[in-house]
Amino acid sequence: MWTGWMTVVGGIGLVALNLGLSVWIARHTRRLFRRLGSAEQALYRHRLLSQYVFGVVMLATCIAAPLSMVRYLRPLGHAGGAIAVVLSALVVVGLTLAHQAIQHPVLREIRQTAETRREQAGQALRWLALILVPVVLWNLAVVWIPDSIQNALDNNRLMSLLLPLVFVTALNLLLPLFLRWTLRARPMPASGLRDALEAFALRAGLGKVGLFVWSSRRGRQANALVSGYLHKHIYLADYLLDHLTQEEVEAVIAHEIGHVKRHHLWIRLLLVVGWVPLVEAIGWLGDTYAPDAPDWAAVGVLLLLFFVYFGFTVRYVSRVQERQADAYVLQLGIPAPVFISALLKLARLNQATVRLHRWDERLQTHPSFARRIEWIAQRAQLPSQMVDDMRATILH
Predict the structure, then answer these.
(1) For 67-81, 88-102, 263-277, 318-332, which range has the lowest pLDDT when averaged over its residues?
(2) Of the candidates 185, 193, 191, the residue with the CA atom closest to the CA atom of residue 215
(3) In a 3-state reduction of DSSP, which class is residue 64?
(4) Where would I find the Peptidase M48 domain in this sequence (predicted)?
(5) Average predicted confidence (pLDDT) for the chain
(6) What is the dihedral of CA 12, 14, 19, 22, to 10 degrees?
(7) Predicted confidence (pLDDT) per residue in 218-269, tens digit
(8) What separation, in Å, do the N-terminal and C-terminal C-alpha atoms of the chain show?
(9) Is the dihedral of CA 13, 15, 18, 22 positive or negative?
(10) Spatial separation of the C-alpha atoms in residues 373 and 395, rounded to whole Å
């Protein structure tokens, strides 16, 4: 018989497993780096282990924590459900911060960064808040909903579908408003570069766009992204601006404009919203054909569905969108060598592996740098020797 002491011991064991695994990943990565002398290979191995090993174990822990306490939480009614939701979120936050703190010394050694543990933790907390706060609020609303309303929704499938659809849609429309806070971005200072980029965006048909810069030099991160469903904001890392030429920055901007012009932001919103009717359909099937199924079975089915939908389907669409955005860069008249140069510099600055394992690439939101560069070169009919020379010059 499963007792309270077993629950406590099991919980401590799971936490110890996560922490021990994190320590092993850090040591393994450091040994690999010192043996090979390649930051790119060591960081790639580190990312694989963190994503596919530690990530899976952490996910299992986050699920097991509330499930192991079901017998104690269920008698509490709505309060028990709320405790389970908050407990899961706290486990995610705690294990994520612990993993980052353990990895910090080895990553600092490999990447030669100046970012402190405190700075890294603050950044992680802001991103976790952006993701988890809406999820927690929605789940708390679900578990605290009065029984009378829940019964009414159970008897009205249309309303039970529309309510979460409206919430998820509104939430995703509002999230870009908090992105500036998450990145701690500031408006790009007045300069010739800002004037040139604003003029470029205007020529590309984007209209007035907000250009923002976030500080990433200490963490040596070179990246860019676009957000906003109505008024568009483009965010650029200052580490990127430090090392790319104006023409290369315009190529990066053109890629982000391609996401806007191809309506990728709205398509991503539809994909996220599409998860709601999918879950409702699974819930209806479960209530109809397996009403007495145990909690762990329902959670398992939902997790499998979540993995297939977001791990494969959504990420496949994302990779297609990345290629469409790359095509838009060339369509705007950006010379292919300039765009390839920008991509190679991004790979070098982030110390990223240019070529990914085939199965790993299928689980990423972006194609590998190698695949993107090969496609751009073929599209522009560039000589392979030219691309090889650029790769050798920029990466080495």
Answers:
(1) 67-81
(2) 185
(3) helix
(4) 196-378
(5) 89
(6) 180
(7) 999 999 999 998 889 999 999 999 999 999 999 999 999 999 999 999 999 9
(8) 62
(9) negative
(10) 13
Cα dihedral across residues 359, 365, 367, 369: positive or negative:
negative
Q: Report the candidate in 246, 236, 232 with the shortest Cα–Cα distance to residue 195.
A: 246
* Cα Rg of the chain (Å, integer): 23
Q: Residue 371: pLDDT band by 50, 70, 90 thresholds?
A: very high
Which one-letter DSSP state was computed for residue 226? E
3-class secondary structure, 290:
coil
Contact of 355 with 44, CB cutoff 8 Å: no
8 Å CB contact between 101 and 117: yes
CB 112, CB 218: distance < 8 Å: no
Sheet containing strand 233-237, edge to edge, reads 186-187, 210-214, 233-237, 224-227
Q: Is 186 helix (H, G, I), strand (E, B) or coil?
A: strand
Q: Are 89 and 132 in contact (CB under 8 A)?
A: yes
Q: Please give the model's pTM, rounded to 2 decimal places.
A: 0.91
Residue 161 clears pLDDT 90, i.e. is over it = no
| CATH entry, 180-266+316-395, from 3.30.2010.10, 3.30.50.10, 3.40.1080.10, 3.40.50.300 | 3.30.2010.10
Dist CA 139 CA 132 (whole Å): 10
Cα gap 167→172, rounded to integer Å: 9
CA distance 156 to 279: 16
Q: How far is residue 196's CA from residue 234's CA, in Å, rounded to a whole number?
A: 14
* Domain boundary assignment for the chain: 4-144, 180-266+316-395
DSSP codes of every residue in 370-387: HHHHHHHHHHHT--HHHH
